[in-house]
Sequence to fold (96 residues):
Amino acid sequence: MPANLKQIQEHFSGTACALSCAPADRAVKGYDLDVSANPGGVVSAAEYLGGIGFALDTITGVDWIAQNEMEVVYDYFHPASSLRIVVRTRVPRDNP
Fold:
């Protein structure tokens, strides 16, 4: 059985890889937890989620032209619990 949502949120809130971590309304957003990671923390987030049974569903890129940033959004799901988690990170457009 995977970790529950509260345990996952506590994990990310207690690590240096996450800049923020907040539950989301799945009916509105389509996912249960939104994690904003620093660019160097994306691999740690992926390793943690993979270690507790999550799989990568999609990867999306967003170009925030006005903010001069690019964002990568990783969508994860857990097949046994149906939990969905988003991990996102932003980098400067001039140093991707």
Observations:
- The mean pLDDT is 91.
- The CA atoms of residues 8 and 49 lie 9 Å apart.
- Residues 42-51 form the longest helix (10 residues).
